[in-house]
Amino acid sequence: MKAAHKELGESLRRQTIDKNGPGTILRDFETLLEFIGPDGVRATGKYHLLPIDRLFELDARMSLPLRPIAKRPQQRSFPHINGLYLLLRATRLGVPKGLGKGTGRLVLDPTMLDAWRAMNTTEQYFNLLEAWLLHARREMMGEAGGGFREAMRWTAMRLWTDLGTKGLDFRKRKRGARDWLYGQEAYCNFALLEVFGLADVERGESAEGENWPILRARRTSFGEALLGILFDFTRESFFDEKDSPGFGVWQPMLQEYFPEWRRNLTFPEPQFRDGVYYFKAKLGSPWRRIAVPADHDLDGLARCIISAFDFHGDHLYAFRFRERDGSQVSVEHPYVDDADRHTDDYSIGYLPLEEGESMQFEYDFGASWRFNVTLENVEPPNRRMKKPRIVESHGKAPKEYWDEDEYDDGEDDETD
User: Which of 62, 70, 293, 397 could form a disulfide with 309 if both were Cys (CB 3.0 to 4.6 A apart)?
Assistant: First the structure.
């Protein structure tokens, strides 16, 4: 095993990382940054995806354009662009601004962009690699989050393992690569294997209904060396369900092969926004408007919502919302032992919501009462407001529990 690792290490030492390789990742990612530009681009939908009417334009700028034949293309119709977008969000270089069709835009964070520009190509390559395999979440590209939060890296590992040392010839399969690449997540991960120079892919001619006509695929020698070391030395931590602390996790392992890797991206600290937050909590038709000072925690907001709808408050609950990178966050009741975040430790002023954005509040995981909680506006601080309060109420709240005396099973009582 040591001899095998030594051979892999020698292969890595011979590898130069620049704009020309391995793969096309650095050229294509730079193309995406230039496409977004200093003013940002109009975003599509609530997930702030790239503008649909400009996808073919962006595809034409890629090193290896797909040129899919699609009547109604979506971002998922371009797996490589979808993968680059995932990296953009996972590095937090690309962040959403505004809401909806009118004001929704995808812009570049100036602080993160300056840090990116200060790095050399080796540092950029490995920071993007960690963004993919350590930070990426399927929700970032508009996919519903699954129960297993690290599905992206599992999918990458599965595809790499299935390729094997001999590769795959999809011409011998009845449905080609489509019976192997099932779902947007698999296509995105396999596209990233290609653009990072970890896999070679031979393409056929584009055809209607097949966005990426793959004929053959195999691992590259660089991919064998790099992932061979990463998957062996970090197998347990690679699939650790806890969030990675930041970038540079694999730097101690790989720096002996790539001494140019010295700097890493750093996620900015959350900014506290002071003021009085006005939320509209809806449960179907009934709704309540609630005002909460920024320095109060989500636990206070939870109790206020429960009280506003005349619920008893004797069950667990959680708030769910999206971070600025598009990942889904759950902040749970203080009694949920295995939660990453608890409501009594999360201040209102740190919520990553803009006015008009919503989060979900679920109360009683068994009954699953789900409230839509929209941040309507933030007013200047009011030091006389000491606690959350209900400022407006519309509609009758539903009953939390059925009243047994009111239950009718539709049958007449028996009489003697």
Answer: 397
